[in-house]
Design goal:
The chain is an alpha/beta fold and 1022 residues long. Strand 5 and strand 6 form a beta hairpin. Helix 15 packs antiparallel against helix 16, helix 33 crosses helix 44 and helix 38 packs across helix 40.
Amino acid sequence: MQIDPQHRLAPAGTVLPPNEVCHQLEQRLRAETEAEVMFDAASRGRYATDASIYQIMPVGVMVPKSERDITTALAIARDLKVPVLPRGGGTSQCGQTTGAALVMDNTKYFRKVLDVDVQNGTATVEPGIVLDHLNAQLKAHGLWYPVDVSTSAQATLGGMAGNNSCGSRSIHYGNMVHNVLGASAWLSNGDLLNFGPVAQLGARETMLADFVRSLASKHQGEIEERWPKVMRRVAGYNLDIFHNQSERPYTSDGSVNLAHLLIGSEGTLAYTKSLTLKLSELPKSKVLGVINFESFHRAMDSAQHIVKLGPCAVELVDRTMIDLALSNPAFRPTMETALINGTPAAILLVEFAGASKAELLPKLKQLVELMGDLGLPGTVVEMADDAPQKNLWEVRKAGLNIMMSLKGDGKPVSFIEDCAVPLEHLAEYTDGLTEVFARHGTRGTWYAHASVGTLHVRPILDMRVDGAQGGAAKMRAIGEEAAELVRKYKGAFSGEHGDGLCRGEWIEWQFGPAINEAFRAIKQQMDPINLLNPGKIIDTPRMDDGTLFRFAPQSSGKPYKRIPIQTALDWSAWNVNADPVTEEISAAGTGGDVTGGFAKAVEMCNNNGTCRKFDAGTMCPSYRVTRDEQHLTRGRANTLRLALSGQLGPDAFTSEEMHDTMDLCVGCKGCKRDCPTGVDMAKMKIEFLSHYKEKHGHTLKDKLIAKLPDYAASASQFSWLMNLRNTVPGAAWLGEKFLGLSAKRSLPAWRSDTFWNMQEDDRALFSDQAATLTAARSGQKAAVLFVDTFNGTFETENALAAARVLKAAGYVIHTVEKGNGSHHCCGRTYLASGMVDEARVRAGALIDALLPLAEAGVAVVGLEPSCLLTLRDEALVLGLGDKAVTVSKQALLFEEFIAKEIKAGRFALKLRPAGKQILLHGHCHQKAFGAVTPIMDVLKLIPETKAELIETSCCGMAGSFGYEAKHHEVSMQMAEAALLPAIRKQPDAIIVADGTSCRHQIADGAQREAVHVARLLESLMV
């Protein structure tokens, strides 16, 4: 372990080594390891930030594939004196995972469960495994790992150990430190140590334990005097393992476990190889009481009484978060279930867990009685059923990110949000801090752990502004005044999210100089050359050091700025500012953004990493198969931000590197719905492509795909010729060679009997515009069927089936045409190729054709999700004015229209049973717009038939994406992630998929036919 202390590295770890050293590091890593090694500016930039306000460009990035890669990299770094920063999901909120170091990402290859001992309730895992993934594997054994952080879908166990994470139910289960039994980790000199109970340590580990014990003994008086007595204390190192100060001892029997020294050490002491965890029994039943408060103070004051009922969680959601949740279509329905008589000032989520509902229901009654005793009768929403509980907890877990969805340059900033105070002082503390915010011209948004006195609060600050009114100055002043309140109420300044860059300097304030020096001694003993994540916990920079901010002010010397561009789409809705006190948003276009709001939209990404989730939702399908930060919504947003701010060079925005970063974005729009801060990467890709293609030009493939609506009518007349590609040997190979369309794919079959060349008896299904308008104005049921290029050209039967179903249900139907077998299109194919001007012309013509009907209140009913929903999305940012808004309000997918009419009592159709199970795959855009539920509602019309929704992300086709040779492999990996295996499991089921490309993927990948819901309904009409 002895290393020459003269080889210590720069303490702050914020200064990059010389270029020569960086080059040597890169060359040696490539030569001596099998790891993925990335030293280009864009890759480094993607790892320069976490979910904090900080940004430090790393030396390089390495994704190790084996333990040998890790040990070799440590040896090379020691030799070259380059710091090393182990990293998990990169969701830290205090800057723990940013630094001028070699960042080593453990999430791609070190994510295995090594062992589960069900009898003893333990599991051994690698550091890169995500908490939800671990719990998914444990569920079959009736076990779980109960440190349930809000980022459980993306947080890794290694990162959680580094931060000493806590979670919503820590009042019952404790923090991370209470649930770790052992750890295997490398020291900076390469030694592998096994940390565990002191009584079972080896000789090398015992020497270290004796050293820490001697420090604890030496500073016993200081520890007793200065150490916070609350459970939520995660600052510094856990020196008190030998002299417990927490209200919840680290171990149940009072023994000492040396592994607890590593918990909360933020990767500064050792590089984790594996963790041994203490598991808990999975609660068999839960009930939830949601208390509505007219006063925030009453909510805080009530917490101390509520905990006496023995809940496993008491979580706060304040008015700001309630309002933001209500404004988000994904969260609104759930939030409404929790409210009584309007919008309260705050709600508390009180959860009880036990063996059965019957055992727990009296707990809810006790809660109701307690609130009555406290003078608050009728304030509790009782939730005994599991589904509404789960939905509400998902909204609570998204709380931080919901807060960060505030538009404008000012954002809720994390630096005092983890202060923990005893419950009896919680109301007074929050009142005092609210007064502090008001004095500094801002306000805070509150949420989280009322049960343990840790309320997350983030004042709204603009970190780009200098001077006394700037973000940094207010951050310092508020931090100092908050610290005095914490001291007054004998709390902890750092209660959950760790120290990092924003709270590291407060460690000495909290513990005093003597204990701070003891922490330094621990660091020097274990990492004498300061190799591991320097600048955290020991020798930290000031939290308001502007040179470290992601959005650096003018005084930093390298101020954040945006490069002016003329956007193709209208981003003015993002070009706004928000009042930090009232949170009122200024008028669109008034935000002063030289990119017209595009950069501000990109900057909405706060790096929370929700896009890294795998368990539900749609985003981010390319990341799910590659597990590369580059192919992640967050990774793309960071690269765009760096390019738009000139940090990657003057031409980075239209560079090949930027194109590579955006390439695997399939435009699924999953982020539009799933991203809590509203990052719409699909729309951003359109904007990027318009600039990139303007500079580099469009390929023949681009033009063929984009202009499909223009030549479809002519090509269909020569369908036999167009279809030779699928039948003549070698034709597919030539298509791949010259057009880049995969020879492994069949192309849609052309046909001469397109919808627009329909037979007279089919044309009789439709009425002209005048007749339709007359019918609608007289109160008759009417609709206009918008038939898109794909269904109208290649799958005429879908459009005719929809018409027959609507006609059978008593609707007068019209369809818009150009004549001569031609048709209107929404512009989707042009948008996908970055041809925004051309898309504007096509969409404008379609909207003009639909406008008279839309103005009369006639629903515009579409079949293809990507086309119809263009009218509700991109068409609104093409500069088409109010007419686009008018049409968008009437635009509904076929199943949305029917579901709406069913609810209004206007739709009835006699159907026979399907006779088989139905499997439904939702198109990505349907998911993004919440339009999958209506399909399930429509399928309920079919008697004696069970319909099941397949939980899938993108099918992998995504328009032309899956047809392209360079994307074929990724496309199939997306399909194989969930969709195709689910279909193969039920070989006799009827498969419903409304997306043209989805049906094609299912046909190619599973050799099964999938049908549009319109065709299914038509086939079952009696």
